[in-house]
Predict the structure.
Amino acid sequence: MYGLETRLAQIGNRSENATGTVNPPVYFSTAYRHTGIGESTGYDYTRTGNPTREVLEKAIADLEEGDRGFACSSGMAAIQTILALFQSGDEWIISKDLYGGTYRLLEQGFKKWGLRCHYVNTSNLEEISEKINENTKAIFLETPTNPLMEVTDIAAVAKGAKEHNVLLIVDNTFYTPIIQQPLTLGADIVIHSATKYLGGHNDVLAGAIVAKGEALCAELAMHHNAIGAVLSPFDSWLLMRGMKTLALRIAKHEENAKALASYLKEHESVIDVLYPGRGGMISFRICDETWVNPFLQNLNLISFAESLGGVESFITYPATQTHADIPEEVRMETGVCNRLLRFSVGIENVEDLIKDLDKAFAIAKGVR
Amino acid sequence: MSGDHYTFETKLLHNKHKFDPQTGAVSVPIQHASTYHQQNIDSFGKYDYSRSLNPTREAVEEVIADLEDGTRGFAFASGMAAISTAFLLLSQGDHVVITEDVYGGTYRMVTTVLNRFGIEHTFVDMTDLQAVEKAIQPNTKVLYVETPSNPTLKVTDIQAVSSLAKKHGAWTFVDNTFLTPALQKPLNLGADIVLHSATKFLSGHSDVVAGLAVVKDAELAEQLGYLQNSFGAVLGVQDCWLLLRGIKTLHVRMKHSSEAAWKIASYLNNHPQIKKVYYPGFEDHPQYKIQQEQASSAGAVFSFELHSEEAMRTFVSHVELPVFAVSLGAVESILSYPAKMSHAAMGPIARQERGISDALLRLSVGLENPEDLIQDFDQALKKTAELPIT
């Protein structure tokens, strides 16, 4: 088997034999002609299966070492599709430090339909085991967490989950299979907001699910088709195009992030730097809340924007952006305070990024 | 353009078009409109018809101009459309001095199309400056350079050729497809027009056919802009957008591919089944020093010759990983057979004169792990070693 970077560069190549095309075609067709009753090419209706989406789904399943992949119209669509596996009365144990969109879907959506969620610090195995009961059906991990970068031992949680016959779902958006392959550590399902590193260019909204095990994959395939929040053929193609440079991008994101984490740690305007040691995401707390806005306003190179994982550097303010739907007292308790900034480090030259930060910090402090 | 003080790798991502001023969108919108509403009957707005100017095409044109340190860029429907449009600057009775191992498509254009319009040409070995000067005539208008050349990777001294051209009142055109501005900037070395098949490294994903031209001089820019609009072989907006997207990873791709090329070329150079490796990154390459001076690396393309056509055929039939195809500069490594692909438009004698033997292969190194490629080549070369000695 070839290395990950080789498999990435070769996505879609040799997927079509009629013309020998190196790049997979985009099939916009919504329907497929049948030659007779009960005779199908394997494609009937594009929601159920589309040849372009299928190349992508196979590629992502291969990278995550899973059995099947499912491409969804957003990361949230991927989570909603997974939620279809459960029913009223089921319980989830889930990371307390969590993306605000996932929290909103669970609290404002699935809570109404009887799904009960226990939010715990999943890096503490005892907190997880305390909440496990006969209704527990899944443990959902973000690792590292968003935005506090707490790391959970996937293999240890997987062991406990298996003992209790509970599904382990891991959101692998921050690390991607280049750094972490949760299915090889015992998880059952991996999800991605593929909008982020997998797509990588801030121009595709997409989600992905990869699962292991025949029965689980068949059930997910059924819901994927039934719910229908599938990824369009063009976005499937663009996502694959982005994935071809994933290994190179992650290497550069990480190299830059390591340098910037050291820089921020030394900086007098910063008190906490939360960096898990891998990947391109850093969170940090600025000394004074009143510096936050002028700091953001005076960044020229780094964009103040919501989202992450793109080639361009972004700084996000979780309090009013990604985590605005989490009540303030919950945010404060977990540490997502009003001085916290989240930095998605891009693939620019790191010295250019440092110069930009230096200037914005200096002005922010002066403005006070 | 904003961000002049940023380094090259940052400029790939941060330029005038890093976000849309109206919405703040961080990706340039694709403007499909072919025409634009005019507010004033007497004075039309900046945009009137998309062949003349389109905001999405304008974005890629400004980005490439900035990256090549030029003042204006022009996007075309293919590399050949860019080259052909640039040649339209010439008139009947003009003469071109052109590098003898030029890309087959340019060779075809010059020898079978330009000649019909009374534009003459002389092929020279561009690495031999005396020969170049000797080939210059009173009516010579263009010195046409490809460096490194295709497929034998000869390196031309851009600065020396540009000075010769200036002395004789001619322009220097440089095809910078192989190295891109990430590794070489011909305008800073005295060239007048830089040309690209942007299908290759600039776009980089084997999914866009595109050409680019960049100039520094304002008057020349005016002339080329006039021709772009008159001839009309402009790049479509979707392809402009895909090209812009490809450019964002140019630095990381070129870095990976050039480093991998060095590893693979070194491996092949020491292999008994390989007769010769053409690669300007080796110290014993005749123009190694010039390459070191005018470019920041030897690039990601090289050629190598096996001992016989039969050995070459055996090798190609056993190689599994690279695509065996025309083109270059992609995420996937591409193995080509110049005699039957890029240089098929040349006759066998013309090819032989240029060292393009029937046992020569060209490799464009992609983004795979170089160890996977070496392993693949190793097993294929073992098969050629099993051939009976003839």
